[in-house]
Amino acid sequence: MKRWRSKHTQPQELVFSPDDPAAGQPAAIPDEVRQILASDEYVRSLLEEKKLTAQKLPAAWFSASRVHLGGKYEDDLLVMGAGPVMGANATTFWIFCPTPHGYTQALKVSTHTLVVKDARWKGAKELEAQSATSAEVFRVSYRYDGLEYKSYKEASEPLR
Predict the structure, then answer these.
(1) DSSP strand E in the chain: where?
(2) Most buried by CB count within 10 Å: which residue of 16, 19, 26, 42?
(3) Which residues contact 49 (CB under 8 A, 6 or more apart)?
């Protein structure tokens, strides 16, 4: 789902899900981010299982989108696991933020859907991870503390 504006020109939330891999503004994954992904414990185990080196990390295992979490001129990177990185009803999402020294990982979460909220806390947009079972929907909300996104609220409700 691409960012859109209502007739009132209010920006709307961005929703990322393996069900809709074309969300956001597609982006190439910079080499330094690929190195961070290749060092991720789960990705590293997949590389070993497939007998691949970190330098041969398949691009098809990820999709990425540029998002503006801190400001409209700051290109943060949201990476979503694809292919063997995905689970049955979830995938892993990573958020990378630019710094003067390169990108830093600000969030890693395994969930079905990641929502970039319009709400801000200390200047950065809030995030919400959403997942479901056959009976409940779970939501975990995250706020940026200047270094990384940390959970601050969890909620569940019966599936309707």
Answers:
(1) 14-16, 25-26, 62-67, 76-81, 91-99, 102-111, 113-121, 124-132, 136-144, 149-158
(2) 16
(3) none
Residue 78, strand partner residues:
65, 95
Locate 33 and state its tokens: 């981010």
Residue 4 has pLDDT above 70, yes or no: no
| Cα 75 to Cα 59: distance, rounded to the nearest angstrom | 20
Domain ranges of the chain: 14-158
Dist. CA 75–CA 90, nearest whole Å:
25
Identify the three-state secondary structure at position 4. Answer: coil
- Supply φ then ψ for residue 129, to 5 degrees: -95, 135
Question: Is the pLDDT reported for residue 113 higher than 90?
Answer: yes
Looking at residues 62-68, what average pLDDT do you find? 91
Q: How far apart are CA 4 and CA 19, in angstroms?
A: 19
pTM comes to 0.87
Strand partners, 150: 143
Closest CA to 102 of 5, 19, 33: 33
